[in-house]
Amino acid sequence: MSFPNVAKGVKRIFTAEILKLFAYICLIIGVITTAILYLSDGNETLNSAAAVSLGALVVSVIMAITYVVLMVTSFIMNLVGYINARNDNENFKTALVFLSVGIVFSVVQVFLVNKGIGSIMYSLSTLSETLATIFVIAGVMQIAFQLGREDIGKKGATVLKLIIAVECITFVLSFFSTFFRNEANSFSSTSVLLMGASILINFIKYILYLLFLSKSKRMLAEN
């Protein structure tokens, strides 16, 4: 028993997620250099401050462009991977629907002026992306059990539980972080700490998902 379409699809999905990881790294570097750009005054001479600011600006622009290119490439590869895999398993068809819905919400969010509605669109986009991921894992799990690879199936079940738990924790942390803003509507140290914790657990979730995709890719290549 073989699943060539899923094998091809999962390989592309894995590559897409790796590209997305590099994109987020570029985003982090861009944010750090932007912070340097705004802080590079006061304690430095005029010339050194100008040099630091120029360097930080160049790096920020490069990182921003790289981030956009990687994210667009990642989305296209994910889309192609889902389309490939859907021919062998129904779960990937559902995942493709949620992926498409998620990108629609993201595009709508860009053109919204109302921050409240924009926040709702962002949440719906994130939820759609999470559901797409869940159905990808469910599809791979189903195939793993059909191939007699219970180890991969059980690994998928563990990752699924983790994703659901992380999403619940992230929602709670995001909810409480809104109560720790000061009167100027900026983030307090407690709010920043909560957001940092949310980012950390989401990063751990993402790495485990990548490891699962890597093992799934090897399993499908062997059959």
Structure description:
The structure is a single chain. This protein has helices spanning about 5-40, 45-85, 90-110, 115-145, 150-175, 190-220. With about 220 residues, it is mainly α. It has 2 domains: about 1-85; about 90-223. Helix 2 runs antiparallel to helix 3 (about 90-110) and helix 4 (about 115-145) runs antiparallel to helix 5. It starts with a helix and ends with a helix.
Brief characterization of the structure:
The protein is an all-alpha fold and 223 residues long. Helix content is 85%, strand content 0%. It folds into two domains: 1-86; 89-223.
Span from first to last CA?
7 Å
What is the overall shape? globular
Beta content:
under 5%
Largest sheet: none
- The overall average pLDDT, rounded, is 83
Number of domains: 2
Number of helices: 6
C-alpha Rg, in Å?
20 Å
User: Would you list the SSEs in sequence order as H and E?
Assistant: HHHHHH
Uncertain regions spanning at least 5 consecutive residues: 182-187
Q: Using DSSP, what is the number of strands?
A: 0
The percent of residues in helical segments reads over 70%
Q: Structural class, from helix and strand content?
A: mainly alpha
